[in-house]
Amino acid sequence: MSTEKSIWKKALDWHEERLPIISWIDHSLGTKYPVPRNLNYWWNFGSLAMFMLAVMIFSGIFLAMNYTPHVTLAFDSVEHIMRDVNYGWLIRYMHANGASFFFMVVYIHILRGMYYGSYKAPREVLWWIGLLIYLAMMATAFLGYVLPWGQMSFWGATVITSFFSAIPGIGDSIVTLLWGGFSVDNPTLNRFFSLHYLLPFVIVGLIFLHIWALHVPGANNPLGIDATPADKIPFFPYYVMKDVFGLAVFVVIYFTAVFWFPNALGEAVNYVKANPLQTPEHIVPEWYYLPFYAILRSIPNKLLGIIAMFGAILILFALPWLDTSRVRSGNFRPVFRIFFVVWVIDVLILGWVGAQPPEGIIPTIGLIGTLWYFGHFAVIMPVLGWVETPKPLPASISQSVLKAAE
Amino acid sequence: MANTAHAHAADPAGETRRDFLLHTTIAMGAVGGAMMVWPLIHSMNPAADTLALSTTEFNISGVAEGQRISVMWRGSPVFVAHRTPAEIEAARKVQLSELRDPQTDEQRVTKGKDKYLIVSGICTHFGCIPQGVKVTEPRGEFGGWFCPCHGSQYDTSGRIRKGPAPRNLAVPPIKFLTDTTVLIG
After folding, report:
1. Per-residue CA distances from B53 to A153, B47, B75 (Å)
2. Domain-wise residue ranges, chain A
3. By the CB < 8 Å criterion, does B174 face chain A?
C-alpha cells in the first residue's frame, strides 16, 4: 500500500511534467539550495527585505483603492483614508512606516555585504543588482512621499526635480518635461502616482535577478571563504526556520512603531496641505536620504553638489575593484574593521548634518564628512588591500568550528 | 538560421541576400521603435491647456512705494517690488565685478519704469520660494530676498549675491500694456 502513489502525488507529478514550478521553487529556496552552515543573524536581512517589499505592495494596492491623484483631492483623500476607510489608518501607517523599515532592513543588508566582502569576486554582478534595487527603492520612496500632497511632499518634489536643472544647457527643459508644466502641479502628481505604482514591480523583477545571481556562486558566509559541499546545509528547513524566527522578532518591532509611534519618523508640516506660494522654513528629506542630502549641501556649487550626491551611490558600483584585498571577511582584516566602523560613523554624522539647518559649523562638518566618505572608497580601500596583513584564514568552515571546540 | 545563411553564402565575404534582408528588417524595426518613443516622451511635456494658462495680466498701481507683492504666473509666484529710491540706489552702485551673474539693474527693469522690479519668485538653486515679500520676513544682507532652503541671498535687483544659487532671479517676459497694466508671459 505504501508503495502505491497517492492521488495527490500523481496529480503533482502530472503537473510537474508540464510546468516544473514546485521543483523550481525547491531549487531556488528549498531543499535543493545548499547554503553555508555558518551564516549568522546578519544574513536574515535579505528575507526581511523581501517581506517588507511584499508588505509595501499589498498595503499600497489597498491604499490606491481609496486615493485620488489630483491636486485638489489628494490631501483630502489621504485624510479620508485615515478617518473614514475601515482600518485605513492601519493600512496607511503600515505603508508609511513600512518605507522606513524597508530602508532600515536594506541598509543593514548592504552593511553586512560591505563588512563580509560579499561584493567581491565572484559576486560583483549580484552586488550591482542589489545597488540597482536600492536606487529603484530611493526613486519609489521619493515618488510615494509626494502623493499625500502635503507641504513637505510639494517642496520635496520641487527641490528634488530641480536637481536636474543643474545639467548644463538642457537642464531646464528636462525639469519642464518631468513636471509636465512650469511648476510641480497636477500633471506631476498624476505621473508620480503612475510611476510609484510601476517601480515596485520593477524591483520584484530585479529581485529575481538578484536571487539568480546569488545562486550562481552561492551565498557568502561570515568567514568569507568558499564553502565546500560538506559545509553546506539545505535552505529548507534550516534557513527557512531561521528566517521565520528573525521575521517574528522583526514584526514585533515594526508593529510597535505602527501602533504606538506611527508619526515618529514623519514631518508634522506634511499634515499641512501643499501651498505653491509658501516654502516651509526648513525643508528636510526623509531620514533615509539625509546622508546624501548632507553631501549635496556641503558643496557650495550647484552642479558639483549634484555630482557628489549621485557619485556617493555610484562609487559603490566600483567597490569590488576599489577594494584591492583578496580576503572577503572583515573578521580577518584587523585594520579594515576599524576603518569600516569609522566609515559607518561618518555616514551617521552626515545623516545628522543633513537634518540640521545649514548654518554655522554645520556645512564645514558636512564637507569633512563628505571628503572622508569619498576618501574611504577612493584612497583607504585600495591602499589597505596592499598594506594590511590579514589574519590566517581557516582551511574550511568545519575546521574553524572544530578548532574553537578544542 | 545561421546554417541556412551559410548554405547560400556565394561570395567569399559571407554577405548574402538573406543577411541584407535581416539587417534592413532590424534597421526598420529600430527606426520604427525609435519613432514611437518620441510621442511617449513628448506626452510628458506641458499639455496645450497648461500652455494656454501661460500669461497673466495685473494692475501695478495698487503697489505702493516700498511694497512688494506676489503674482501667480504659470503656477509659481512672480515678485513685483515698487522700490524706494534708496533700494534703486543700492542696486545701481554695485560693481559688476562683484556679481556672480553680472547684470546691471537697468538690464533687469523696463525703461522708464525703473522703480518696478518684476522677477520670478523661484530660487535658481532648487526652486524654493525666497522670503522677503512681506516686511516681516528676512530679506538677507542685501535687502532683497532670502531663500530659506539653502540660504541664497538676492539684492534689491533680484541678483544672486551669496549662497549656492548660480543665477539671478529670472526676469519673465514683461510688457506694460498701459501705464498701470502689466502683462507677464
Report:
1. 24, 10, 9
2. 28-279, 284-406
3. no
Cα(A334)–Cα(A315) distance, integer angstroms: 24
Nearest to A222 by CA among A34, A33, A36: A36
Write out the catalytic residue numbers of B: 150
Per-residue pLDDT at B1 exceeds 50: no
Q: What is the DSSP letter of A387?
A: H
The nearest CA of chain B is from the CA of A182 a distance in Å of 6
Angstrom CA distances, A122 to A51, A192, A207, A333, A382, stand at: 27, 37, 18, 19, 18
CB nearest A277 (choices: B44, B50, B70): B70
Q: Which CATH superfamily is domain A284-406 in?
A: plastocyanin oxidoreductase (1.10.287.980)
C-alpha cell at A205: 523583477
Q: Is B120 helix (H, G, I), strand (E, B) or coil?
A: strand
3-state secondary structure A270-282: HHCECCCCCCCCC
Q: What pLDDT digit, counting tens, does each position of A272-303 carry? A: 999 988 888 788 899 999 999 999 988 878 88
- Among B126, B129, B150, whose Cβ lies nearest the Cβ of A163? B126
CATH code linked to domain A28-279:
1.20.810.10
Report CA-CA distances (Å) from B141 to A56, B151, B163: 47, 11, 11
The three-point CA angle A398-A400-A406 to 5° equals 100
Q: Is the predicted ipTM greater than 0.85, yes or no?
A: no
Identify the CA nearest to A67 among candidates A185, A147, A186, A157. Answer: A147
Interface test with B, best of A152, A159, A167 (most B CBs within 10 A): A159
Report which DSSP code applies to B139. Answer: -
